Amino acid sequence: MSNTAEESGPPAWRLLLGYVRPHRWALLGGAVLSLMTGATGLMLPLVARDLIDDLSDDRAITGALLLMSALVVANAVLGALGSYVLRRTAESVVLGARRSLSSYLLRLRIAAVDRSEPGDLMARVTSDTTLLREVTTDSLVGLGTGGLTLVATVVLMGFVDPVLLGVTLGVIALAGTVLGVIVPHINRASRQAQDAVGVMGASLERVLGALRTVKASGAEPREERTLHDAAQESWRQSVRAAKWSAAAGNTAGLAMQIAFITVLAVGGARVATDAIDIGTLVAFLLFVFYLMAPIQQVVGALTQYQTGSAALARIQEALRLPAEPAAGPVRSPETGTTPAALAFDDVRFRYAEDLPYVHHGVTFTVPAQGMTAFVGPSGAGKTTVFSLIERFYDPGSGVITFDGRDLADWELPRLRASIGYVEQDAPVLSGSLRDNLLLGNPEADEGALTRVLKTTRLDGLVSRLPDGLDTLVGHRGTKLSGGERQRVAIARALLRRPRLLLLDEATSQLDAVNEAALRETVADVARTTTVLVVAHRLSTVTMADRIVVMDAGRVRAVGTHRELVTADPLYAELAATQFLATAG
Ligand SMILES: Nc1ncnc2c1ncn2[C@@H]1O[C@H](COP(=O)(O)OP(=O)(O)OP(=O)(O)O)[C@@H](O)[C@H]1O
């Protein structure tokens, strides 16, 4: 994802307000508590001045001392309560952002996922959202409460001595100009640091997703270098951000020291000329001292905001990726439904604008019920047919109809609820065997589960496993064999009781016994359901009711095995070489 997208979106503060809006009352409560904390602190110099006056006039100081003690205790209690409320609210803002972002990512269009790095998307949900925590408390509240305390302090200082206030404001204005130069640097560095965290996430996902291959290829040192480079880049940019943040913090600190010394010098001169008394000077110096906290708070808020707005830009970038419309879950399966009919009419499709067409006018019809096999050389566009039926992508032109109705007119969840899809690489998700089987139909009863386990010959495996169906299968099902993974994927699709079963046959071979059993199962299913299979085995094509021969994105022939062997030279060649080679 490019950095340029961030420029076209709404400003970061508006996005932040969007996340904060649901928690505005809690945030306001926390801010009020912080303000009250500030106010109790602000009253202390005034009471101190009274105390000094009482001392100079030989009056009792008990009242002033008691008031000061009460203020100190109130300050501590209100401060703790305020910080808890704010922190809790900030966590709620993070939660809201994580929820909306993760829901959105699940709805992403497959084309958008093709263009993204999953590891980078993960970093946006985990790492970038975390940065919103600080931006909510430190920035929003810091800017609000710090700003208000600052204004209140300045007003009070004006009452105490306007001349000394002028001196103080002069120094602060100078520091403000320097800060204006520093702050944009923090934003840039923070953005680059977060981008580097995203790159690191992507590299980690790449390596951990294929660790066996990486090890078998002896590629650890190179992959290690890529990971280290990304970590180093994140460090470099974070250090750059830290450098500018430190410069900002110290500029504010230095300004206050200068203000303190200047006030002391100018104030001392004013005391010497009797323009003000010593109590006023002490009170003013205490105000300068108290000014430090809100100023540091406002500067901290501004610097923190830069980091937060960089993270917000990355979150927003993910939220701008094309997604499918949000829709409620559909009950699956729809009981008592009939097999589906399907047709492609002159479908042209390419995966992206800058890629060549994969389908150049594909046309075929599949009646309800029975088995249709798709065959053709590698890259002919067979799997793409399935991706278009599932509406992972939409065709560039032409029409695909499901039960005579344009796919584009189907509500996506309803369409997908009618289809069972077994991908070629039979993905199995981390979790238990049961979780995997029920993924497509969590409401399937034990009876259906037992039947499907039997037809896919998984019952033997389940009875062998110590925890049976509750056995954990590991990341991507690594604890299962390739053949077992395939059978789990088929069982999962069958449990959905689909109206249309899409089976992308694995090129790797199942053992003969399991293959024969699965063939029987698929033939059985085809008696009540429409089955489409991308076939890599002769045994599959010979039992198909019709075969669609695809070549270079076109349908070149349709017929039965017997018809095609004589009528289509490509099919004859495939049957003689590719299929026979895997027929066993
Ligand atoms: N997500 C994608 N993005 C870009 N190009 C893709 C994508 N998926 C597939 N392709 C390209 O589209 C073409 C057709 O791919 P497809 O998977 O449909 O072929 P196939 O006939 O199923 O091949 P095989 O028999 O090897 O599985 C190939 O050239 C492939 O490189």
From TrEMBL:
Source taxon at top rank: Bacteria
Record keywords, A-Z: ATP-binding, Membrane, Nucleotide-binding, Transmembrane, Transmembrane helix
The ABC transmembrane type-1 domain, residue ranges: 28-307
GO terms, molecular function: ATP binding
Domain ABC transporter: from-to ranges: 342-577
Subcellular location: Cell membrane
Keyword Hydrolase recorded: no
UniProt-listed SMART domains: AAA
Topology class, membrane: Multi-pass membrane protein
Primary localization class, coarse: membrane
Transmembrane segments: 25-48, 60-86, 140-157, 163-183, 244-269, 275-293
PANTHER family per the UniProt record, alphabetical: ATP-BINDING CASSETTE SUB-FAMILY B MEMBER 10, MITOCHONDRIAL, ATP-DEPENDENT PERMEASE MDL1, MITOCHONDRIAL
Protein name: ABC transporter ATP-binding protein
Organism: Streptomyces edwardsiae
